[in-house]
Amino acid sequence: MAIVWYQEKQYPITAGESVLDTLLKNQFTCSYSCRSGVCQTCLMKAENGEPPERAQQGLKETLKKQGYFLSCICYPDQDLHISSKNNNSVSAWIVGKEILSQDVVKVILRCEDRIQYFAGQYITLTRQDKLSRSYSLASLPEEETLEIHVRKIPNGQMSSWLYDEAQVGEPLQIHGPIGDCFYTPGQSNQPLLLAGTGTGLAPLYGILKDALTQKHQGEVWLFHGALHSKGLYLVDELVSLVKKHANFHYSPTVLQGDPDELIKVGNLEETIFTQFPKLSAWRAYVCGHPELVVSLKKKLFLKGVSLKNIFSDAFITYPKNNT
Ligand SMILES: Cc1cc2nc3c(=O)[nH]c(=O)nc-3n(C[C@H](O)[C@H](O)[C@H](O)COP(=O)(O)OP(=O)(O)OC[C@H]3O[C@@H](n4cnc5c(N)ncnc54)[C@H](O)[C@@H]3O)c2cc1C
């Protein structure tokens, strides 16, 4: 049985338990969110001993070399001396809030030190009580503040708090940015497909603005899905971008309701693939609900999009009582 040393005491790791599980079991307050090795909120450092390779998945080489690892997926087979040093965090505070739809709020954040990022990457917000959740960046790096879109989940600890209670001036800690779902210039004529549901629009909106700002020449199609038309948001802003950019097309799709000039009624995937049965030359960005992301990625591949041209962020949530 491996032993983990933390704050000068030792804790045996029971079979099937991660380092994070062990620390939580021993009443430590730790930052974490997805518990799936995605959001990187639970980053810790091995001061002595080698963390398993899998516990370093998705980390930058520079972090790996320094012994950083993700404690939620770290099942060590040797003793580890660990610390909670996390050099990947910056102080920030809320400078604005705007309700975008009946369940989506835009939150504007200012960081103490400006962070380098690409529109579409995500950050993890940590509240003063250590509650942490990830949100995608809809703003562009040249803007002075960060913009996120938060969908209020009934009884959701962070999202309901951000929607209903959090005030301008509220301090937060930001980890990140993380992720490779962002626009890269280079193949300016390549057609781009952006698809997502709900607040999956946040990273797609950032990626779209980035592509248009960088004068992407190929066609850019944004497919945004919602249950009904009240679930759509930023419709006016997107329609106005359509008017300004001849190569940009916006297709909102809802599952329920009546179609109109703009909005289609039906399944988002059917809407996309009826319009584009073959997509071999395309680059695709898919964000939002994990089931949609997995399903769309598979279908895009089958329709000819090469894997290296599919970028995605699944909004993975940890289902249990994740405080
Ligand atoms: C990479 C990444 C990027 C993300 N980007 C965004 C973003 O831009 N905007 C955004 O709104 N969210 C985003 N999320 C999701 C976000 O991190 C939180 O999981 C979400 O806000 C819910 O947190 P909560 O604390 O309010 O709910 P919790 O208190 O964690 O959950 C309460 C209950 O609601 C359920 N639940 C949680 N999320 C959902 C959901 N989406 N649908 C249905 N039930 C749910 C949980 O299973 C639980 O039972 C992202 C997640 C990841 C991993």
Notes on the protein architecture:
It is a single chain. With 323 residues, this protein is of the alpha/beta class. The protein has 3 domains: 3-83, Roll (Ubiquitin-like (UB roll)); 89-178, Translation factors (Elongation Factor Tu (Ef-tu), domain 3, Beta Barrel), CATH 2.40.30.10; 192-314, 3-Layer(aba) Sandwich (Rossmann fold), CATH 3.40.50.80. Helices cover 20% and strands 31% of the residues. The strands form 3 sheets. It has a 6-stranded antiparallel β-sheet. Strand 13 (220-226), helix 5 and strand 14 (248-254) form a beta-alpha-beta unit. It binds flavin-adenine dinucleotide. Flavin-adenine dinucleotide is lined by residues 34, 38-39, 122, 133-136, 148-151, 153, 155-160, 199, 202, 313, 315-317, 319, 322.
SSE blueprint:
Elements: E1 3-6, E2 9-12, H1 19-25, E3 43-48, H2 61-65, E4 68-70, E5 80-83, E6 89-101, E7 104-111, E8 122-126, E9 132-136, E10 146-151, H3 157-165, E11 171-178, E12 192-197, H4 201-213, E13 220-226, H5 235-244, E14 248-254, E15 264-265, H6 268-275, E16 283-288, H7 290-302, E17 310-314
Parallel strand pairs: 1-5, 12-13, 12-16, 13-14, 14-15, 16-17
Antiparallel strand pairs: 1-2, 3-4, 3-5, 6-7, 6-11, 7-10, 8-9, 8-11
Bound molecules: flavin-adenine dinucleotide.
The site of flavin-adenine dinucleotide has 27 residues, from strand 9, strand 10 and helix 3.
